[in-house]
Amino acid sequence: MTKPKNNDDAELIKEWPLPPAATLGSSVRAKGILLEVRARLPSTVRKSLDIEAGVLILAMSETSRIEFRAASAVVANTLEGIEILPVIPREIEDILTMSTTERHRWLNDGRLPSAGTRTVKLRGRAKKITFHVFDPRVVEDILDRDLVTVWREEDAEAAAENRRRAALKAKLTRSLRSGKTPSTKGNTDDASRPNLSGWDEFGRDGLLR
């Protein structure tokens, strides 16, 4: 039986392996589950519960049999249906190997659906913080379909298109300021140039400046 750290003298030990469907292969998610379960325990026994290699371990002394049985029941009850525990930001970033910037971007544009918000008060801070949480089954689907790779490719294409448009806009602006009609490099055939009705008025209005 695996013994938890700093509990070599413990005589009462019980273990609960966390299912892959709950951790989604993330040690950060596993630690989050540990903290969730600890929060349900009395403060005097919370540190008696630890995690090692994806296994929750409760270790207490022989003289604490009553507390051990009570804590064991709380852990077992909390772990029922733990697979549906919402995924918090630091967990989804680890599971999907995404950056905080990417999480915010994909959340804001709708590609990463939110399952709601959660408000907590962090230790040592006066103000509460509110953040989005995510459905673990949705996160699992994103992981299985490798959608993060798809989204990054879409972002790269969008960035390239934005740069192309910005370059064209800058070229047109320079042409307006110099009083010249923009032309395509390497092509001096007038017939190939776009016939832009009202171009002079458009330039005088300064809409590209």
Describe this structure in words.
Residues 171-209 are annotated as: Disordered. Residues 175-186 have a biased composition (Polar residues). By secondary structure, the chain is of the alpha+beta class. Among the domains are: 12-83; 89-145, no CATH class. Helices cover 45% and strands 12% of the residues. The chain has eight helices and five strands; from the N terminus they run βααββαααββααα. It has helices at 20-23, 27-38, 65-79, 89-95, 100-108, 136-144, 147-178, 199-204, and strands spanning 12-17, 49-52, 55-60, 117-121, 128-132. The strands form two sheets. The protein has a three-stranded antiparallel β-sheet. A two-stranded antiparallel ribbon has the order 4-5. Helix 2 runs antiparallel to helix 4 (89-95). It is elongated. Residues 1-5 have low confidence and may be disordered.
What keyword list fits this structure?
alpha+beta; elongated; 3-stranded antiparallel β-sheet; 209 residues; two-stranded antiparallel sheet; disordered N terminus
Q: How many helices in DSSP terms? A: 8
Supply Rg: 29 Å
Summarize the main sheet: 3 strands, antiparallel
Structural class category: alpha+beta
Q: What coarse outline follows from CA principal-axis ratios? A: elongated
Averaged pLDDT, please?
Answer: 86
Distance between the termini: 73 Å
**Which range does the strand content fall in?**
5-15%
**Record field, number of beta strands:** 5
